[in-house]
């Protein structure tokens, strides 16, 4: 559950970074006022408020979001949100009720377009090669999963990895 919570917290940071660095992402959120949430069935989750060209997030459940992505449990949410082929993972999760999307589907599509900016190529002057090359980018979160996989050594000098859920 901790990995899922960390992933949700990092999403807000990554979205704001994409908005700062990419003028197209900034234009995409300009003038938008929207609340959405990502949660589990048992109530673990976070809601995000897009307003004034920024994304803010708060732990907990919002009483009236525009849309909600509800995962069966935290490990399923982490697996789907950090999958290499995220679009496929999302589509496979829907029929089995591992993921339930409720609310305004136009807003969901808007959010999907926003997450595409997370994996967009950086401008040529800011390009850095880090981590392993991922040829298929997921719809939501690629970089947090890489950060979790490349975690520093823990107690006793052993490298901590979070590859499996």
How would you describe this structure to a colleague?
A hairpin with a 2-residue loop joins strand 2 and strand 3. The protein is globular and about 35 Å long. The chain has helices at 2-21, 23-29, 74-81, 86-93, 105-116, 143-149; strands spanning 34-40, 45-51, 54-59, 67-71, 99-103. The chain starts with a helix and ends in a 16-residue tail after the last helix. It is α+β, with helices and mostly antiparallel strands and 165 residues long. The protein has a five-stranded mixed β-sheet with strand order 3-2-1-4-5. Helix 1 packs across helix 6 (143-149). It is 38% helix and 18% strand. It has six helices and five strands; from the N terminus they run H-H-E-E-E-E-H-H-E-H-H.
Could you name the key traits of this structure?
disordered C terminus, alpha+beta, five-stranded mixed beta sheet, 165 residues, single chain
Low-confidence stretches: 124-129, 133-138, 159-165
The structure class reads alpha+beta
Task: Tell me what portion of residues adopts beta-strand conformation.
Answer: 15-25%
Report the span from N to C terminus.
Answer: 10 Å
Largest sheet: spatial strand order: 3-2-1-4-5
Quick one: biggest sheet? Answer: 5 strands, mixed
Q: Kindly state the mean pLDDT as a whole number?
A: 80
Shape: globular
Topology, number of strands? 5
Task: Name the helix and strand elements from N-terminus to C-terminus, one letter apiece.
Answer: HHEEEEHHEHH
Based on CA atoms alone, the radius of gyration comes out at: 16 Å
Number of helical stretches of at least 4 residues = 6
Helix content: 25-40%
